[in-house]
Each structure stands twice: as C-alpha cells, then as structure tokens.
Amino acid sequence: MKRANKNIILKRMVNSEQHMSKLTNSYRPMKTYFNYIILLLVLTITSCTDVIEVDVPTEEPRLVIEASIDWDKETSGNNQTIKLSMSTPYFNSNGNEPVVGASVRVTNNTDGSEFIFSDQNNGNYTTNSFVPVLNNEYTLEVILSLIHI
C-alpha cells in the first residue's frame, strides 16, 4: 500500500512538472517580445543625432492676405474681416508683422457694389456693411504704399 501511494505522489509530481514546463514555454515568447521592446527603446533613446544647419535663403518680405467670405447660418453675413501682414524669415519666432494703413476694398462683380474695410490698427480690416450673395464673384483690392495688389 505504501508503494502505491509513492507511485501516485511521483505521478502527481511528474504531471505538475510537465504543467509548469508548459506554462514556462508559453511565457517565453512574451518575455522575448518584452525584451525586444526594451532593446528597441534603449536603442532609440541612445541613438546618435547630428545637428544639421540648414541654409534658408532670405527674401524680401511679401504681403500676406488672409481673406474669405464668412457667412454663418442664420446670420446676415455683414461682419467680415480681412487680415494683412508681411511675411518674415522662416526661423523668426515673432510671427508675421501686421500691416496698418492700407486701403482695402471688395467689389461685387455682378452688381458693382463696393465694400470698404476699416483699418483696426492691428492688421485686421473689418466691415459691418457687407452683403454676401450666393454664387456671385468678388474682387479684392488692397493698396499699400506704392504697392497695388
């Protein structure tokens, strides 16, 4: 009887070792995958970088016009804004310089009506008398110093 108990105990130990072996083998691919991710992260963080100086050609500043006819649903569309600025070099962190003192006019090409935009002294030109008409064409005229665009 004692021998039979020893055989049962040995069989249980062998079965539990086989079970642990299966668990360990199924865990290995995940562990390998995790190790690859860690290795990739370490290589990415510690990889070499070279500073490259880019020679960007400089140009004369140009007039930048930001204009569109904005007509929100259930509004008359009378309030319109046009923004004028001068371009700046690429690496300039100050942004574009606002243009003040320009003359801005929009003309409806269909009926000839003109809308004069007022200078707000911050690069914005506004009007509250604009009358938008669907499917009409408009002409924007900006006069700045001796420049006519």
Topology diagram in text:
Blueprint: H1 2-46, E1 63-67, E2 80-86, E3 97-98, E4 103-108, E5 114-119, E6 124-127, E7 138-144, E8 147-148
Please give a structural write-up:
With 149 residues, the chain is of the alpha+beta class. The chain has two domains: 1-49; 63-148. It has one helix and eight strands, in the order H-E-E-E-E-E-E-E-E. The protein has one helix at 2-46; strands at residues 63-67, 80-86, 97-98, 103-108, 114-119, 124-127, 138-144, 147-148. Strands 1, 2, 3, 4, 5, 6, 7 and 8 form an eight-stranded antiparallel beta sheet that branches. A hairpin with a 2-residue loop joins strand 7 and strand 8 (147-148). It starts with a helix and ends with a strand. The model has no long low-confidence stretch (mean pLDDT 79).
Sheet with the most strands, sense and barrel status: 8 strands, antiparallel
Unreliable runs, pLDDT <50, ≥5 residues? none
Strand content: 25-35%
The arrangement of helices and strands along the chain is HEEEEEEEE
Per DSSP, the total helix count is 1
Number of strands: 8
Number of domains: 2
Rg over alpha carbons: 37 Å
Mean pLDDT: 79
Assign a percent range to the helix content: 25-40%
Distance between the termini: 109 Å
Dominant shape: elongated
Quickly give the structural class: alpha+beta
